[in-house]
């Protein structure tokens, strides 16, 4: 175990909050608006919280008390996910493993894969895949770009996803790896891969005998028909033929239902997904789940079921997502009106923008904070390919987003 590699990880995390603190000291009267960290802000619909409250209160009664549940999750929730999230995709409830969140599943999957696998990630991407790989010892040392703060670890295949390639790598130039982490709609770029792009990804994995870990945490933000390509963007990798033999899908109630604090997610590990020796990956994942995790909170699972089981529940959580999507539309419209190069927002709560071409992400972040008291996230924190961009999050109230847009407009116009 090489602790100095982990150190480079740990130092990165707190930079934004440190800068925010310094800023608030310098301008004690400024109203800072955070469009930074990817955390939900709006209340959870009461149809969901009442189900949790009811379940929790029943725990105080002899009839309603329950202890450990199945480590893989409650049957009713596994079935609701298979039926509602994966209709007509041939996903069986027994292939759905309920968890305490996608971040935790990334860690458990990386633990299952072990130290000796090679991994590929999109660049830029959500940092969890790389960071857990670093902790597992899959990588060599980081080469940190002192100026941008973007780091690149030896041994990881970074698949550049930029406006120039429609946010999808030229796979003929990607080195074969054992595992490919792929997030769509992508955090941070907001790009939802087209059906054709996902077909290419699945074919590539099948040719190479690679496992795709498909992160669909933002699937509920996909707008059919919106955005670029032909508007045909799958919400799940299992919409693509052949994916069952190569892909694990991880997903979450966090951005779908405001469960970032409640904690609930799932992983789908299809029965047909096999290692090279013919053994089932699901068997190993089941072993990891039963060994390192005793199952998700039963209260959280009661809430998850309320999000999915009734039309009313589904509509209530969809309204919250629609509100964030409207915020994203307001942000995109603002940057477009200012003539800025802007991406995302159609299929995700994230807007990806190059405000000052040629300037570094951290510079742009600092200038926006200084002049408008608005917090963004420097793109270079998501990998070297994010340099030059900032990510602007739609996770806030409409009022604050509108206020932030007014400030950005008076500064940038
Ligand atoms: C927020 C986020 C997650 C984390 O989900 P949890 O279920 O809260 O752990 C996973 N993947 C991506 C891409 C995210 O943005």
TrEMBL record:
Keywords: Aminotransferase, Pyridoxal phosphate, Transferase. Belongs to the class-I pyridoxal-phosphate-dependent aminotransferase family. LL-diaminopimelate aminotransferase subfamily. GO terms for biological process: systemic acquired resistance, salicylic acid mediated signaling pathway. It comes from the Eukaryota. It comes from Triticum aestivum (Wheat). Its cofactor is pyridoxal 5'-phosphate. CDD domains: AAT_like (cd00609). SUPFAM superfamilies: PLP-dependent transferases. GO terms for molecular function: pyridoxal phosphate binding; transaminase activity. Residues 31-408 form the Aminotransferase class I/classII large domain. It holds the Pfam family Aminotran_1_2. This is Aminotransferase class I/classII large domain-containing protein.
